[in-house]
From TrEMBL:
<dbReference type="InterPro" id="IPR036388">
    <property type="entry name" value="WH-like_DNA-bd_sf"/>
</dbReference>
<keyword id="KW-0804">Transcription</keyword>
<dbReference type="Pfam" id="PF08281">
    <property type="entry name" value="Sigma70_r4_2"/>
</dbReference>
<dbReference type="Pfam" id="PF04542">
    <property type="entry name" value="Sigma70_r2"/>
</dbReference>
<dbReference type="InterPro" id="IPR039425">
    <property type="entry name" value="RNA_pol_sigma-70-like"/>
</dbReference>
<dbReference type="GO" id="GO:0016987">
    <property type="term" value="F:sigma factor activity"/>
</dbReference>
<dbReference type="InterPro" id="IPR013325">
    <property type="entry name" value="RNA_pol_sigma_r2"/>
</dbReference>
<comment type="similarity">
    <text>Belongs to the sigma-70 factor family. ECF subfamily.</text>
</comment>
<dbReference type="InterPro" id="IPR013324">
    <property type="entry name" value="RNA_pol_sigma_r3/r4-like"/>
</dbReference>
<keyword id="KW-0805">Transcription regulation</keyword>
<dbReference type="InterPro" id="IPR013249">
    <property type="entry name" value="RNA_pol_sigma70_r4_t2"/>
</dbReference>
<keyword id="KW-0731">Sigma factor</keyword>
<dbReference type="GO" id="GO:0003677">
    <property type="term" value="F:DNA binding"/>
</dbReference>
<dbReference type="InterPro" id="IPR007627">
    <property type="entry name" value="RNA_pol_sigma70_r2"/>
</dbReference>
<feature type="domain" description="RNA polymerase sigma factor 70 region 4 type 2">
    <location>
        <begin position="109"/>
        <end position="159"/>
    </location>
</feature>
<feature type="domain" description="RNA polymerase sigma-70 region 2">
    <location>
        <begin position="14"/>
        <end position="76"/>
    </location>
</feature>
<dbReference type="InterPro" id="IPR014284">
    <property type="entry name" value="RNA_pol_sigma-70_dom"/>
</dbReference>
Length: 170
């Protein structure tokens, strides 16, 4: 196969590569870069392509391997080595220092919110929280099982509204 024929077949595959590149990168600009890098590698390694085999599969494999190589390289660049006596690998983007004060504030707010629930909602909710099944709660409180489910649902809904400030933290 001549270089011109190879190049023509390679160019014909670009529309098929675009969705796959976008699926891998989840970004249009990065997908275009990946396609360009894939085409460059395919053309520079055209002598490795065996005529009579599936060119599309060959190019898709190049793209996948290129993406994985770049992803691993980026992951390594975001990691640094701690040169202290412990010699840990630490991911520099996810380290943060926290004390238990925020957790204690949250627990206090949760306890207050539960205490402020109406007894008709808090009692079935707390029984369910402690591990009772719906039918057990129904038997102990002498109310229908549908009422138990409804009260637990309403208690959760009210707690969710009251504790909305913690939605992004936990």
């Amino acid at each position: 196969m001549t270089a011109i024929e190879f190049n023509h077949k390679l160019q014909y595959l670009i529309p098929a590569l675009e969705p796959f590149a976008y699926k891998l990168t989840k970004d249009t600009a990065n997908a275009k870069d990946l396609i360009q890098e894939t085409m460059l590698k395919a053309f520079s390694n055209k002598e490795k392509f065996m005529v009579g085999t599936n060119m599309k599969a060959w190019v898709f494999t190049i793209m996948r391997n290129t993406f994985l190589t770049n992803y691993q390289k980026n992951a390594r660049q975001k990691t640094f080595i701690d040169t202290s006596d412990n010699l840990h690998f630490i991911n520099s983007t996810s380290t943060k220092q926290e004390n238990k004060a925020m957790g204690q504030f949250a627990m206090d707010d949760i306890q207050t919110a539960i205490e402020n629930l109406d007894d008709t909602y808090s009692e079935p909710f707390m029984m369910y929280f402690r591990g009772f099944k719906y039918h057990e709660i129904s038997d102990r409180l002498n109310i229908p099982i549908g009422t138990v489910k409804n009260r637990i649902f309403l208690a959760r809904k009210e707690l969710k509204e009251v504790l909305a400030v913690y939605a992004d933290r936990y």
